[in-house]
Each structure stands twice: as C-alpha cells, then as structure tokens.
Amino acid sequence: MGILTFKGDDFYMDGKPYTVLSGAMHYFRIPKEYWYDRLLKLKECGFNTVETYTCWNLHEPSEGVFDFSGNLDIGAYIDTAAELGLNVILRPGPYICAEWEFGGFPAWLLTYKDVPLRCYNETFISLVERYYKELLGIVRPRLASNGGPVIMIQVENEYGSYGDDKEYLRAIAKIYRDNGMDCLYFTSDGPTYTMLSGGTLDEYLCVANFGSGAKSKIGFLRNYRKDQPAMCGEYWCGWFDHWFEKHHVRDYNEIYDDFEDFLRINASVNFYMFHGGTNFGFMNGANYADKYQPTITSYDYSALLTESGDRTEAYYKIREIIGKYFSGVPEITAKDSEKAAYGKVNLTEKAPLFENLDRLSKPISSPAPRFMEDVGQSYGYILYRSTLKGPWDAWSMSLEPVHDRAHLFVNGELKGVYDRTVPLTNESAVKIPLGFGEKAEIDILVENMGRVNYGPKLRDRKGIESVRFGNTNHFGWEIYPLPMNDLSGLSFAPANGEKDIYGPVFLRGELEISGSPKDTFLRLDGFTKGFVTVNGVNIGRYYNPAGPQKTLYVPAPFLKQGKNEIIVFESDFAVAGEIEFLDKPDLG
Questions:
Q1: Predicted model pTM
Q2: What integer pLDDT is reported at residue 474 of this predicted model?
Q3: Fewest beta carbons less than 10 Å away: which of 124, 276, 333, 581?
Q4: What is the DSSP letter of 392?
Q5: Nearest residue to 143 via CA among 113, 93, 179, 118
Q6: CA angle 336, 297, 542 (to 5 degrees)
Q7: Closest to 91 measured CA to CA, from 277, 242, 272, 299
Q8: What was the pLDDT predicted at 496?
Q9: Residue 331 catalytic?
C-alpha cells in the first residue's frame, strides 16, 4: 500500500497527487461475516478508503481485560480492507462520540470519581495509554509505512466541541508516537473558529466536519489553515434517530451537489456514514441538550448502504459522479443479501423476572441504592429491593436521579413508572401509606437506556442513589445487577396462550428455518418496551409506540438452519405473545 503525505494544497500517495475518497463503516456495528461484502460495495462505488472508529468500551469491557476477538477483531477488519486494495483511516478516540454508548468510553471509567475526562490528567492519560498499547500493537504492523493500508490516524475526536486542552491533545499524539504509529496525524472539528481553535494542533493536518455547503465550509477551512490540503472529515449524508422522533431521511439531490463540489474544488472527503449498521445490544448512546434523548437501535443514518447493506439510489448516483472525475471505477459484482419473511412466531414460554432473580444475579446489600458502575455493572437493568415498615405517612416518593427509566412495584404490583425525560409532580409521585404493623415490599427496576455520548454531560452514571419520602431517605437495600448478558439460567414455564402479558417478563419461542438462513426483520406489534435476543445474541432494543423504529434487523449470520431461540424481555406490557419476521424493514 502507498504512503500518504501532503504539501501545499495537495495530498500525495507515493509522490503522486491523490484525492482521499473515504466512507465510514464501523466494524463493531456490522457482523464480521459481512465485512467483506460491505467493504467490496465501498470499493465498487469508487471509493479508495474506509474510515472507522475503535470502541474502547468493547475492547476493554472490564478494567485491564481486553477483547479483540470475533466481531472486535480490528486487525482482521483492516486486513479485509487491504485484501480489497482499500486504504484505512483510523479514529481511535479515545472518545469517539459516534452515537455510541458513553462516546466509546468504558463504563468503569466512572468509578474514577475524581478523574476528569478528556483533559490532561495523569490518571486518565495512563488509562488511555494502557488501552492504546493493546490496540496500537495490533494496528502498527498494518500501517502503510509497514506495508499495510492504514494511512491516517486521528488525534482525539472533534475535541473543539468539548474543550481546548492542547497539552491533552499532544499527550494523545505522544502515545501514538511512543507506540510507533508512523503515519499522517490529523484532527477533525466543526467549521467554526472556536471549534477549530480548541481542537487543532499547529503541527498536524486539520479537517472539518459538516453536512452541507461544501464550497463555503471548505473555503472557511482553507482560510483558517492555509498551505494544507482541504478535507471534510465527516460529510454527514444523513442523520441518526432518537426515540419519539421521526426517521431522518436526507434529500439526495443536496448530497449529489455537495459531493461534486468537493471534487470540483480539489477537496478530499469522508462520507459519514457510507454504511451505518446497527447498535446491537445496549450500545446506543444518547444526547443531552435540553433533555435526555437516547438513540434508537438502528444506525441506518440514511447512508449510501442501508442498515442491512443494500445499495440505495444515492449509491449509484455517487458512483456515477466519481466516474466523471476518476477513471477505473470497478464493475459492480457484490450482491445485496437475500431477505426472508419467516412469518409469525408464538412465544409459548414465559419466565417472570422476579421469579428468576436468583438465577440471573446475586444481591448486594447496601444502606443506600448505588449506581450500576459502583457495583461493577456497565449495561442493562438493575433492581433495588427493600422493605418499608409502618406506620408511614402518605408522602411523595422520589428517586434521585432516575437514570433512566424506573418501574416501581409495591408488593409485586406496578405502582408507577419514573422516567428521566418526564418531570416528577406531586400527582405522578407514588405514595405508600402504611398503618401500624403493616409493611410494603418495594422493587425498583431501572433501565440504562444508553449513556450520553456528546456534550458536557458525559459523566452519565446509571441507576439511582437515593429514595426519599418527602425529605426522609429510606435505607436498607438489596441490589441485583442485571446486565442481561447471559439468560441461559432462566426457568421457563408454558405461557398458556395468555393475551395480556405484564412485565417484567421474559418470553421465549422458536423460529424454525429450513435451508440457509437469510436476513430478516423482527416486528413486535403489541409489545411496549424491552430487548430481544436471537440464539443468545442481543439484537437491540424496541420501544413502542415511541418509534420511529418498528423493526429490528436480524442478520443471517445470527440465525441457523433448524430451530432458533428467540427471547423477548418485555418490561411493561404486551397484548399478545406473538412476533413476526418480515422481509422489509420499517424505520418509520
């Protein structure tokens, strides 16, 4: 592979003028079995480079324990790109935003309560350095300078949107150098003076991120930083969705005009996203401006390839435009995947959560409720259990903070749902009046709906840490961590065809497949909120009627010929235990 350098306004690949035509695809949002297909489609669209973030939270899920296997095999992803003759732009963060849980930071970072994030703090830097030593050891042999495809590496990520600590940025760059990362370094920020001033370093290339107005934004960048190539580090060809929003769909004509403008004015570009993929499991992030807004499971992004990897109308048009300016666009050989409508599946077995607590978790005794992170948990749900003894006044019950959605049960009966996005009022607060000799068993089930991934509220701890009646704190709790990462111990019983199903409950059924499995889309009409596992793989969250997403993508590699186990965890209510597999998605 070639060495990328720059001089004046131009990039050079092995000394010849070069335009970087890149598309963003995150290996951790795509089944490994589909990496080759997606990368081939990128190449056959006329692009020469793939860009990806890396996800610290999955690569170091527990402190000091690293995972680069299976779908996290970043080395294999880079090798697949090299096999296809594609260059690679690497964006290791350590913060990546990406609408990804906690912006890619591992949840255990929050146990370092006195350590600030994303600035020069020796403890924070040392934790980043430990992660980078493992990650960059895999990447280093794959640098262009070592014959591999990695031509550029980003220092931090859109740092000017967060801070202006140059010592911190230089510390990140120093870790790269200390680990032998001999390639072109760059920073990326929004095209404003404050963002560029805060997030750039004079000694490294700076690029700008935006989603419209290519001519004017590139002109702004060239005025800000003269005598360097102009590049859009993220051209937002679509956008992501939050629950309760409409699905974002971009006007393709604007994309075509902007893209051709990049080529007319000799600017390089990275399409964000070329292929978005899926926030499988509990890996969606959240925004927090005026309020908390968690991101949905799909990361379709209105990209050039759909969530399931199909070419869009825009794919062909962008390919046509590239062909006008560059020779040698490959022929199309990659096929879109076959889809199957497997039909309806009855969930014939159930396992109520409260009856299975001891099979899923071991309780931790604590005077006060504790956050997930403080009991060694990163994702999923957490249950707080206590007994309240009378006499007790009918005072309003408050949970602080509610991060993010809590179901309050009294003696096994649901009494209220406390939601982070809905202000508590005296009318909505639960009250538990008790007489002499009376008592109430309290269960509070809290869901982590995704940590904030952007802005000043990154320190987004999950669960609750106090329960009060009026101003009186209630103490004496048993805490059950429920990461929901292993459901094999559940004890199921026949559901007996119940029509009204009250959560929290696990429901199980079997999808029978004859022949080779195909991609499919799961629809859960009649269900309210929860997540789904297919053969033990968490395919993500659903939330009806919040929308916009109505189906969950189930890739063929998650399925098998014969019987497939489907488990739905419903936290609220379902009108019937029936789900349906379709051959088309519905993202709203």
A1: 0.97
A2: 98
A3: 333
A4: B
A5: 179
A6: 115
A7: 272
A8: 85
A9: no
Torsion of CA 351, 353, 354, 355, to 10 degrees: 20
State yes or no: is 349 an active-site residue.
Answer: no
Distance, CA of 173 to CA of 186 (rounded, Å): 10
| β-pairing verdict for 231-236 and 268-272 | parallel
pLDDT digits (tens, 9 = 90+) for 122-150: 999 999 999 999 999 999 999 999 999 99
Q: Give every CB contact of residue 80 below 8 A, 6+ residues apart in sequence.
A: 35, 36, 39
- Helix or strand (DSSP H, E) at 316: helix 313-325
Q: CA-CA distance, 410 to 442, in Å (whole number)?
A: 5
Instruction: Write down the pLDDT at residue 425.
Output: 87
- Per-residue burial over 303-324, b if 16 or more Cβ lie within 10 Å, else e, is bbbbbbbbbbebbebbbebbee
* Cα gap 367→435, rounded to integer Å: 24
Q: What residues of the chain score a pLDDT lower than 70?
A: none
Considering the candidates 158, 349, 373, 570, report the single residue annotated as catalytic. 158
Selected catalytic residue, list 60, 156, 234, 570: 234
Q: What spatial distance separates the first Cα and last Cα of the chain, rounded to whole Å?
A: 42
Helical (H) or strand (E) element with 493: strand 493-494
At residue 146's C-alpha, the angle toward residues 145 and 148, to 5°, is: 95
pLDDT at 497: 81
Residues contacting 100, CB < 8 A, separation 6+: 53, 55, 57, 279, 283, 284, 285, 453
Residues 6+ apart with CB under 8 A from 372: 107, 378, 382, 448, 461, 462, 463, 481
